Amino acid sequence: MSAGAAAAKAQLFAVLGARAGRAWFVPGRIELLGKHTDYAGGRSLLCAVERGFCVAATPRRDRRVQLTDARTGESAEFTIGELLTANWARYPATVARRLAVDGKLDYGSDILFASDLPPAAGMSSSSAFVVATYLALCGEAGPEGREALAAYLAATEVGVGTHGGSEDHTAILCCKAGRWSQYRFCPTRLEQTVAAPEDMALVIGVSGVAASKAGAAQADYNRAAAATAQILSTWNEVSGRHDATLAAAVAAGAYEPLLAQLPNALRARLEQFHNESDVWIPAAAFAAREGDWQSFGEFVACSQAGAEAALGNQIPETVALAASARRLGAVAASAFGAGFGGSVWALVPGGAAAAFRAAWQREYQKAFAAHAVESLFFESAAGPAALQIELEG
Predict the structure, then answer these.
(1) pTM for the complete prediction?
(2) Distances from the Cα of 320 to the Cα of 238, 296, 363, 366, angstroms
(3) Using alpha carbons only, how large is the chain's radius of gyration in Å?
């Protein structure tokens, strides 16, 4: 981590009050590219963010799990296997229930946590909470490794009602500090990593519009996922094949035939998926590796435009943030995450990051004064994946 981020984490662990034993830092993630691609077998370009959950756990001798937010004092308690449907506790309860069904959990824990990751901001706070709960209850991944654990926890999170993929959990568990990681999904495999540019900084603009994958926004999020399933079903029906993902169908030659027969909305979604996964991400990663930041910015702009035109998950605030960042001198800028709210990342020369962040924040809060209090602007390096921390004294 950068020195400032490490100092902030030390303060969070101090808030927990735990003085010995095992603890964890579990980050959020930044999706540089890969808008709604993972659950369809596509690619994503990812890094961990330096904000996240600090967690400490004490095993219990019964089947109760108690969680306490050390910053707010809010707490929740449930029995392993109990089904909860309301408030933030449904995420850890869903994890514990799945672990119990799979025979992986017999005893509970008292779990303290503190987070500096903005909630419902597109940085996967819910998935980070899921990963943090697993690590607090079970410790490190088993012999199958962290990529397999990411897929397992993504399937577990479906129990909350979100029909997504494992991009978030993979980034949280597997990304490397100082690197951008290109993953392909279904199954999960690392294709390449690219060194994050040392002379540039990522600045994050949180719009202040909640990007929750649960509650009222869940239907919108799941609608984007359902479109890919509809396209795949059409292909398998007309081709007589049984491809498991849209990516597999495209690889089998589905793209051109489907463009000729799909209705406009589904055709636009197919084009966006193919371009994002098979064209823009590999090209952007190559440009970053070569230090060709003009081309990198152009591919990122294509991705943002594709989301605005085809995914239907952008809102005026995120569209304005991306456009404003480019106008203020960002090399590249894009909304990320599930959409329907959330955040935008901007890549800027490191020496100009502080001035850029202030100008970006000022311009956004002037244009969207109603979100001034909830919005947040900060810098982050490409941080480490989930880390076990040994607390001493």
Answers:
(1) 0.95
(2) 41, 20, 10, 12
(3) 21
